[in-house]
């Protein structure tokens, strides 16, 4: 009699689906002192000092008379000038009054000003989020003990600090969290895909890690106290945490260990209920089926437009009688993500706000340390680097049935990566060859 594979793990077959600153230029007017005042001249009058007192008296008297005559003339002239100025000012005011803008024009200008302010605010917000996101994603201090330089097959490699890496985790639960607060009830991480982007070149990759990959998993108590590390399937990492952030962080740690401790900056863990809403938010995704879905009348090679519950069926279904069934499912998951991204990018180019809308939708069904500013920067990076496609790769290795005695009643699949191929993949993705 055939032993069932992973009977404790959920599958589609046995689970019911829900069928500026304005930069004002301040111009300073330069005051230039009158040269005539600077040289001691006084309105055209020059005073000469004589040596004789009679001459002084005569000249002083003559000066007094001329001064009175000047003041009288000046006063009359000033009165006349004031009258003329008043008349000119009145005329100027009348002329200016005739140039008043119509009320409609004033309203139009006011509306235009408001629009410009709103546009400036939106653009300013996007630029701020982009700047903040760039700092968060490119200046993360990793706690992993990765090697800065590696010598492999006679060549030297140095870690590429331009790499941004994000773990996308699919959790086999309808809603994230624990059941009655019990450790081990958070669910399992069935989908594990590392997305990387080189911010300098714009080269993007998606690296799929099989859920059954054997790795050292950190075990924690109900009070989140570290107990020990134990070798087990990667998919069990999510169970040891609070069902949200600490579970996702634990998976990220396990993924890093598989990839020779390279830093993984961010994570995004999605529950089952979130698959359909996020898929449908961009109008669904079209793929060429990699699997025969007999109960859905879909054959391998058929072109299928995934919407609603069909999306979950496509990325989750697997044959429990086949030890390598999870590898085929893994291939479908990475195919789906690539197809989703291919449809998402054109949508973002047409409407940048779709990033915030999608982020808002995903928030209801996920746990993540990716902020809105991170998402804004990533979208901006994809647009500026014209990232319309990315390379996909699945870790190669061998799938084996477990030989552990405590699993005698069932068959547990265990995946062991090919160490040489794994190292080559890590070097190609996270390092730069220097000789």
Overall mean confidence score, pLDDT: 76
The first-to-last residue Cα distance is 56 Å
What sort of overall outline do the alpha carbons produce when their principal axes are compared? globular
Low-confidence sequence ranges: 7-96
Q: Could you give the order of strands across the largest sheet?
A: 11-8-3-4-5-12
Return the structural class: alpha+beta
Order of helices and strands, N to C?
HHHEEEEEEEHEHEEHHHEHEEEHE
Helix content: 40-55%
Q: What is the tally of helical segments?
A: 10
Overall strand count: 15
Proportion of residues in extended strands: 15-25%
Sheet having the most strands: 6 strands, mixed
| Rg on CA atoms, Å | 39 Å
For the structure shown, list the relevant keywords.
435 residues, alpha+beta, 15 strands, 19% strand
Structure described in brief:
By secondary structure, this protein is an alpha+beta fold. The chain has helices at 35-38, 53-97, 103-138, 245-258, 275-280, 309-316, 325-350, 354-363, 372-384, 419-430, and strands at residues 149-152, 155-159, 163-171, 189-198, 204-208, 214-220, 226-233, 266-270, 285-288, 303-306, 366-368, 391-394, 397-401, 413-417, 431-433. Strand 4 (189-198) and strand 5 (204-208) form a beta hairpin.
Q: What does this protein structure show overall?
A:
By secondary structure, this protein is an alpha+beta fold. The protein contains 10 helices and 15 strands. The protein has a 6-stranded mixed sheet, with helices on both faces. A 3-stranded antiparallel sheet has the order 1-2-15. Strands 6-7 form a two-stranded antiparallel ribbon. A hairpin with a 5-residue loop joins strand 6 and strand 7 (226-233). Helix 3 (103-138) crosses helix 9. The longest helix has 45 residues, at 53-97. The model is unreliable at 7-96 (pLDDT under 50).
């Amino acid at each position: 009699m055939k032993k069932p594979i992973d009977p404790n793990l959920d599958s589609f077959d046995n689970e019911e689906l829900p069928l500026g600153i304005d930069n004002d230029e301040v111009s300073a007017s330069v005051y230039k002192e009158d040269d005539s005042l600077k040289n001691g001249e006084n309105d055209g009058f020059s005073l000469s000092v004589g040596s004789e007192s009679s001459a002084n008296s005569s000249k002083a008297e003559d000066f007094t008379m001329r001064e009175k005559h000047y003041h009288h003339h000046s006063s009359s002239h000033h009165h006349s000038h004031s009258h003329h100025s008043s008349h000119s000012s009145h005329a100027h005011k009348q002329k200016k009054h005739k140039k008043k803008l119509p009320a409609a024009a004033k309203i139009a200008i006011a509306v235009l000003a408001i629009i410009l302010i709103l546009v400036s605010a939106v653009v300013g917000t996007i630029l701020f989020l982009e700047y903040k996101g760039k700092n968060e994603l490119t200046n993360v201090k990793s706690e992993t003990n990765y090697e800065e330089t590696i010598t492999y097959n006679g060549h030297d490699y140095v870690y590429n600090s331009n790499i941004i890496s994000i773990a996308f985790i699919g959790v086999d639960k309808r809603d994230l969290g624990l059941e009655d607060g019990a450790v081990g009830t958070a669910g399992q991480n069935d989908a594990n895909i590392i997305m990387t982007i080189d911010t300098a070149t714009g080269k993007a990759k998606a690296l799929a890690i099989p859920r059954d990959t054997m790795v050292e998993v950190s075990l924690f108590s109900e009070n989140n106290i570290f107990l020990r590390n134990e070798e087990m399937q990667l998919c069990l990492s999510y169970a040891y945490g609070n069902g949200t952030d600490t579970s996702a962080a634990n998976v990220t740690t396990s993924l890093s260990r598989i990839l020779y401790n390279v830093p993984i900056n961010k994570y995004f863990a999605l529950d089952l209920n979130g698959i359909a809403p996020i898929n449908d938010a961009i109008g669904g995704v079209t793929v060429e089926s990699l699997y025969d879905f007999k109960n859905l009348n879909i054959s391998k090679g058929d072109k299928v437009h995934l919407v609603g519950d069909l999306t979950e069926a496509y990325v989750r279904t697997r044959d429990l009688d086949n030890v390598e069934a999870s590898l085929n499912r893994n291939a479908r998951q990475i195919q789906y993500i690539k197809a989703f991204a291919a449809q998402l990018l054109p949508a973002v180019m047409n409407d940048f706000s779709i990033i915030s809308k999608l982020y808002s939708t995903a928030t209801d069904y996920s746990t993540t340390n990716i902020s809105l500013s991170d998402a804004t920067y990533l979208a901006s990076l994809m647009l500026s680097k014209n990232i319309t496609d990315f390379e996909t790769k699945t870790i190669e290795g061998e799938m084996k049935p477990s030989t552990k005695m405590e699993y005698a009643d069932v068959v547990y699949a265990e995946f062991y990566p090919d160490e040489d191929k794994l190292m080559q993949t890590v070097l190609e993705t996270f390092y730069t060859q220097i000789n």
